[in-house]
Structure prediction request, 476 residues.
Amino acid sequence: MMKKELSYALDYALKKGFQIHPNALELLERVEIKDLELTIKQIVREKSKQKRFLINQDDLEDFLGLKEDKKLLNEHRVLFDPTLKITTAEGIEGYNALFSSRFEKLKKIVSNRPEAKLLKSISLIISTKSKEDMFLCGLLSERSSERNITKLTIDDPTGTIETIVFDKDLQKIAQGLLIDQFVFVKINLGKNGGFIVKDLIVPGIPEHVSNRSETETYAVFLSDLHIGSMYFMEKELNDFISWLSSPDPVARKIRFILICGDLVDGVGIYPGQDKELVFVNVEDQLKKAVEILEKIPKHIKIFIVPGNHDPGRRALPQPAIPEKYELGLWNKENFFVLGNPSIVSLNGVKVLLYHGQSIDDVVRTTPGLSYDKPTEVMRRFLQARHLSPIYGSQTPIAPETEDMMVIDEVPDIFQAGHVHVVGFDTYRGVLILNSGAWQHQTPFQAGVGITPTTGIAVIVNLKTFKVYTKDFGSED
Ligand code: D5M
Ligand code: FE
Ligand code: ZN
Prediction:
């Protein structure tokens, strides 16, 4: 559909004997231009002098100040993508390997602490019953509280130990631990033979000095588009994409867009979903997604990781949305389709992208956490150095031989989505972002009291780490 203003401007150019190149036409349809008529008149006057009667994309970009700034860096490297590492390890053997990988990786992370030299295996601690202070590490398998004490059960590859926490402050720390998370514990033997916890240490992250982009390149953090759902905010997303081609000084500096999962709404994800879908098969949903995202200017690189609504396997870590859908998305130069979680470097800034499925489990089982403060949950993941510590709850975890959900390296930016609530925070120098959603509140969310923040682009200056939000949904 051509806007009235646009067809008027085109008529004017044609009457003056000008031709308009299809690329220029495409740009005009895509970009909201103030004073379009005036711009066209200026171009016509200028080019008439030169006796060149074709208006091409270059002319428009010159006149509108849309010329791409070649000095802005847009280098990327994929530092981690689980897609090709995923195996099909199965059964008990697989889970043993997964947990032993988790244990070894996290033990390595704490190995530079001075106490690490004193670490003993659980089986040795149980058999020697030494009177000295002892240090152990393992995964927290159970926690219970009765009267004024908290009991923690901890596993390492050699055995299981039951420990008791009396100290009030340590009990508080114990209550905040996530089940199956890695802990480092100082214990000693109590008078009646029990193991008493004297200190509780989580791996955590050191104060972090983040890598920065040399140029003021901007990245946009999006997630949870849910294309295919009748609640998908198509108009707002299209407005955002048009804005990318506008003369807005921030838009002119955007070189990266990260889409952190739930690109499409999927099929059969929850009971009765078919009644809430516009497209009832995943191919059509993906086709629609490509149709929309293709309009993003080619000088912007787009990274896509899957969420729980996207096709591919459901269990974490997830491979990239499979190529079999033949959408051509995978061979476009500026699209990078990755697994969940992934790590990319953008002009040297290390970004961890994780959809965030496990936020549900953590909110449900940890006192003091809620859906409206997703960055608080993400901070716990950094402290536990793991993206999905709780095993056997709602988030399916695959029995991989390597635990790829361990946060081996501290990122500069940690992005998640899933909860549909925008949030940002800094924790020990790491920028934590949740990118909200482009889907209106669904009846399910209304039922469980989730109020999403929708249609908001979260934008970061990769040189200063200043965060901007631009709201495309405020009109309704
Ligand atoms: O998740 C969107 C939001 O809805 C997110 O906050 C989790 C919540 N959600 C989704 N499914 C459930 C169930 N089964 N129980 C509790 N909360 C849930 P999305 O992944 O977009 O559907
Ligand atoms: Fe979602
Ligand atoms: Zn989700």
User: Anything to note?
Assistant: The longest helix spans residues 91-110.
